[in-house]
Design brief:
The structure is a homodimer. By secondary structure, chain A is of the alpha/beta class. Chain A has one domain: TIM Barrel. Chain A contains ten helices and twelve strands. In chain A, helix 1 crosses helix 2, helix 3 crosses helix 5 and helix 8 packs across helix 9. The two termini of chain A are 37 Å apart.
């Protein structure tokens, strides 16, 4: 019987108070700390926070927030969902997570991704044209830094996306290497194979549609690991959801926030407006885990069984 | 009677245990969290951590460490000593401190500096040849981001050290702008005038010699503020020290660690080896605050009076 873990993710969506007034970004961040404390007390396995760089989300510096959460929790694993490695510096990311790992007594892990939003590219001086090269090279650097802590050997790296690393070690080192690091993918076969190549566990971000359509990616990942001669690694799923006392209440609570958020993102990406019918389809057969606890538990269990994954992270905050 | 504040600074020097074995970087970081908790309980005004990127120091990601400290303290102000702005991204720095400010309920402040060590330049892909331009332009960006939170206006910036910022706001915004930010200087008149120009309070890093030789810089700062039509701003001092039950015990405890560290740094910078006589001179008349509490209190009070400064931050960890 494999270990089954349940995690919670949030992007720090800007919420409104009881009178409909938007809470400040700072208040949302403090709310997230309180939510993580509760998750820790309830025995949730993982708490992940996602980075955005736009007004409708409060989390722009995830590891600082996770540092505060580390100071107020005891058991829960702390990580990101995801760290946009493409527009960050792998050296800085490694330092931040090594520090988080130290102050949390080994509870840190990072999920590295290419980023699904595009705001961070111009903000940090990168071009979307370099989307693939940025992630490929930075993941190679990150993997090399991770190996350096295990072997004690300095890192030599040369490429196109940053200046060379000529025999450097990065401080502070991780206390018990390797640093736990996943690669988060949205459904590109190249990304799945890349995660296998660098021997990172795999996180599938399934944010819409029937989760079973990701079965080929899971199979591809395990096949790639085997072909590369790597031992097997865990696979996890990240999907959005909302719980309430009853199925109906959960749907009624989520629908207005879902609609606003989905149409805001959709208008940026050229999607047509969503509909209640689409929402209900996502709840019934897609990747929205919405309902009473028993309903959501059954749906999570089905997805984990269908895909053969060992951790399910529910993104619980929806505007 | 002006407010007088006492702060503590540490760079997370790698320490040894009772048997002389080096502690891990991770353990040193956890020790720093515990030291900050004690400082908070004792009513110390400020706790600052300094960033290094070399094996003899544990702090490479200060704001993550400060996040953990924020989660475990109630009153103490939290900051850096210093943040090497030259080799970081002002946008990222702003996001990290805004996040720290939120999770600490408004207790964050940043001290921005050019950096006295050089390791961070090659590590993060910068050239020491650009030392002045990097700090000048990045300080301008940081000041613009700080103003943007106050005015609500987006930032427009164009220069040479990073890609332009074309009408951006940075999230999360600081809850109660302006973000408290100092400029740390080591004794360059240009740096003092620059701090005044952007209307940052001034921190003097006085790490050797008679502190009174900094009097002209304090006068220059106040004169520059007045000429620019800015209201007056506080000045603080950062200097190293060590306390024990008696003056003699404090000196005997510090000397071996001081000697090792001073000569390690000195050999990198081309200084001749230090001597016990030089050490004793620094303790008697220079910028080492070493002795019994009463002795050190008198010396701190004299420096604050001589220079007319309102905060004194003692760097207490010395290898």
């Amino acid at each position: 019987m494999p270990t089954i873990e349940l995690g919670l993710d949030t992007f720090g969506d800007l919420t409104v108070d009881a009178d409909g007034r938007p809470r400040s970004h700072a208040q949302v961040l403090r709310d997230v700390v309180a939510e993580a404390e509760l998750a820790d007390q309830l025995g949730i396995a993982f708490f992940g926070v996602g980075e955005h760089h736009r007004p409708d989300f409060a989390i722009g510096a995830p590891e600082v927030l996770l540092g505060a959460i580390a100071g107020r929790t005891e058991r829960i694993t702390l990580g990101t969902a995801v760290t946009i490695l493409s527009t960050d510096d792998p050296v800085r990311v490694y330092q931040r997570f090594s520090t988080l790992d130290a102050v949390s007594n080994g509870r840190a892990e990072v999920i590295l991704g290419r980023g699904s939003f595009t705001e961070s590219f111009p903000l940090f001086g990168y071009s979307l044209e370099d989307y693939d090269d940025l992630f490929e090279e930075k993941l190679a650097i990150f993997a090399a830094l991770r190996d350096a802590d295990r072997t004690g050997e300095p890192v030599h790296w040369k490429g196109t996306v940053r200046t060379p690393l000529e025999g450097v070690r990065v401080y502070p080192p991780v206390e018990h290497p390797p640093l736990k690091a996943w690669v988060g993918v949205g459904g590109s076969p190249e990304s799945v194979v890349r995660a296998a190549r660098y021997h990172f566990p795999l996180t599938l971000a399934i944010i819409g549609g029937d989760p079973r359509r990701f079965t080929p990616y899971v199979e591809l990942y395990h096949r790639a690991l085997a072909q590369l001669g790597h031992p097997t690694m865990p696979v996890s799923v990240h999907s959005p959801g909302h719980l309430a006392e009853t199925d109906e209440k959960a749907r009624e609570e989520l629908w207005p926030a879902y609609q606003v958020m989905r149409n805001r993102i959709g208008s940026e990406r050229g999607w047509p407006p969503t509909s209640r019918a689409e929402f209900e389809r996502e709840v019934a057969e897609g990747s929205l885990y919405v309902g009473a606890p028993e309903t959501v538990a059954h749906k999570i269990a089905a997805t984990m069984r269908d895909l053969g994954v060992s951790r399910f992270d529910l993104k619980y905050s929806n505007g």
